[in-house]
Design a protein that fits this description.
The two termini are about 15 Å apart. Helices cover about 45% and strands about 5% of the residues. By secondary structure, it is mainly α. The radius of gyration is 16 Å and the shape is extended. It has a domain at about 20-85.
Length: about 90
Amino acid sequence: MTENSPKKEHHQGWSDWLLQGRAGIPFLKDVHPYLVVKKEQSDLAFELINTYGTNPGRGHRLSREVKDKRLELKEKLHSLKTKGKGLRGSH
């Protein structure tokens, strides 16, 4: 978790929290039933994380199929983030 200070006196501070890869699975499973705006993004995140089980490890190349799937999911996630701009609580 990172604490961020406001740049201007009248702004509030904020915190960032980052979970990457498989570390995010327990959190996503816990919050998934309660998601409304982010539910589709959560579904795509699960799908993306599942491609990590096909990772052959350091020094080995991913198959073209896995690379293509990850790129497809990344583009879908990006598209959803773009659609959500302007929605309160969607970023």
